Amino acid sequence: MATRGKSRKRREMDRERTAEVRRKLEERAEDRSSEDRGKKRRTQRKSRTRRKCSEEEEGRREEHRGRAEHGEHAVRKKRQEHSGGAEHKENAVRKRSGTQRKSRARRKCGEEEEKRTQRRSRARRKCCEEEEGKKRRTQRKSRTQRKCGEEEEGRREEHRGRAEHEENAVRKKRRTQEKSRTCSKWATEKEQKTEEDGYQREEQKAKGNGQREDSRGTKKVGGESRRQKFRRQR
Q: Which segments show compositional bias classed as Basic residues (predicted)?
């Protein structure tokens, strides 16, 4: 029974909450519709005011147009009445107006010509500045290229100097080697010649003493040849 009472109470609370939410939604919808109605009324009021203003403006224009036509008729009538002096005055006014118009046109042409001259001057000055900038860039490039060329030439000269130095060193080494070979050759030849001279002296000496020859035609001195003895003595 207690549980059933709680369920009924909960359902009543849910119904009250639902009714409250529905009432708030209805109030919000009513406020929105009233705002829309107010906006519509304001828009209609603005339209009526604008239409009324345009009608009043049109009326003023019509009135002004009527006055202008009336004034024009009056002026025409007055001119017709006083045609002589009026025509003269009108011609004078027209002439003065034409002169003023020409002066204005001439002044305007002069101003436009001045503006064109200034534009041309600015364009010419800009062109000269661009040409000067191009010339400076070209000179800078030329200096850079010349500097690079000089550095490259310096490197080549240095490389050439190293190559010449190495070539001179190789030549010097070759000459030294040739001199060494020549000196050693001369020393060998001198040694051989000295040996041959000694041998010939010994041979002459042996011939002078009348010593016997061995089977090979070489004189024997104490069981050894004269050449061997000469070498031993040396």
A: 1-10, 39-51, 94-107, 135-146
